[in-house]
Amino acid sequence: AFSKIGEKFPSCPIKGVFHSAAVLHDALIESLYESLFRKVLKPKVSGALNLHFATLQEKLDFFVCYSSVSSVIGNALQ
């Protein structure tokens, strides 16, 4: 996908990535079972790795991965 974007827009190279995958499951991290922890974490880690490998040939200025501290400090739930 990145190479096709580069071919279509050669004068506008991709200079950065923002990765903000999320799975909504309101719970504190210490109360998650391992299976649910993996379910919540998998899209974040898999997505970051896929984006990393897809952009290895790009000359990126930044690669930002967003997450949330609500799993540690809690939130108001849904």
TrEMBL record:
GO biological process: fatty acid biosynthetic process
Domain of life of the native organism: Eukaryota
Alphabetical keyword list: Phosphopantetheine, Phosphoprotein
MF (Gene Ontology): fatty acid synthase activity
Calcium keyword on record: no
Ketoreductase (KR) domain ranges (all copies): 4-78
InterPro entries (UniProt xref): NAD(P)-bd_dom_sf, PKS_KR, PKS_NRPS_Biosynth_Enz
Pfam families: KR
Classification via PANTHER family: FATTY ACID SYNTHASE (PTHR43775), SI:DKEY-61P9.11 (PTHR43775:SF37)
Listed name of the protein: Ketoreductase (KR) domain-containing protein
